[in-house]
Amino acid sequence: LLFQILGAVILGVGIWILADKTSFIAVLQMASPSLKTGAYVFIGVGALTMLMGFLGCLGAVNEIRCLLGLYFTCLMVILITQVAAGLVIYFQKEMLKEELSHIVENLIEYYDPLNDDERNLQDAWDYVQTQIACCGWAGAKDWESNKILINQSMTAYPCSCSNSSKDFQVDTGFCNLDVPVNGTATYADWPVHEQGCVDGVQKWLKDNLGVILGVCTGVAVIELLGMILSISLCKNIHSEDYTKVPKS
User: Fold this and answer.
1) Residue 160 buriedness (CB in 10 A; 0-12 / 13-18 / 19+)
2) How far is residue 122's CA from residue 158's CA, in Å, rounded to a whole number?
3) What stretches pass through the bilayer (predicted)?
């Protein structure tokens, strides 16, 4: 039962990644095909874990060594895959960070409130900037590459970046700046947050690192216990008795 619950949790994470439309996950999964692939992997692993939990229970109750052996093998494969994925992420973190930076910079450059085709992706990024209280990826200067803002001589700024109380109810699109005497401005003139979102995301990861590691460790420990228990049961079953297999 415990492994079926674990499988349901993993399955739920995969579905959440695909269904989420209002957070940083949405920005990633709509801009990067690799995250969508990862979501489908989560769904597959979750479904497999639930199936293995059922087979493990069936093998234990009916003392069927082949089912317990299959259960052990699948758990070992899943655990090795998880460890391998963790190592890949750890050693490829700089490349992943660079890819993410490119995705966000491209989004900022072509951000257009009137573009309905990219509305979900842009709304997700606005949500990130509002919730984390940040602006741009490295900082507000990133928005100086936006084509619409360039055409307006930087006399407008992204509302979701605003730290001004008058823009509190507006969290998408562009807000107009009080036009300077010379009719031009820079990002330094905008009433926006100074922190870049990369710093906000890293701070969130740092603050929640303990929880993330705890969950990963807990999952690994449960899988190891399942492997140990299945091997112990296999050793205690002296002979195979296929007459115990439930008949349909």
Assistant:
1) buried
2) 11
3) 6-28, 40-61, 67-91, 211-233
Contact 136, 201 (CB under 8 A): no
185-203 burial by CB neighbour count: b if 16+ within 10 A, else e?
Answer: bebeebebbebbbbebbee
User: What's the fold here for domain 63-244?
Assistant: Cd81 Antigen, Extracellular Domain; Chain: A (1.10.1450)
CA max distance for the chain:
91
Contact 122, 113 (CB under 8 A): yes
pLDDT digits (tens, 9 = 90+) for 45-54: 777 777 777 7
1-31 pLDDT, tens digit per residue, is: 556 566 666 666 667 666 665 556 666 655 5
Q: Tens digits of per-residue pLDDT, 191-202?
A: 999 889 888 877
Q: Helix count (H) and strand count (E) of the chain?
A: 8, 2
CA 79/CA 221 separation, integer angstroms: 10
For residues 123 and 151, what is the distance between their CA atoms, to the nearest angstrom?
Answer: 22
How far is Cα 54 from Cα 65, in angstroms, rounded to an integer?
14
- How far is residue 13's CA from residue 16's CA, in Å, rounded to a whole number? 5
Q: Letter for the amino acid at 244?
A: K
d(CA 213, CA 72): 24
β-sheet bridge partners, residue 162: 192
pLDDT value at 207 more than 70 = yes
Q: Locate the domains of the chain by residue range.
A: 63-244
> pTM surpassing 0.70?
no
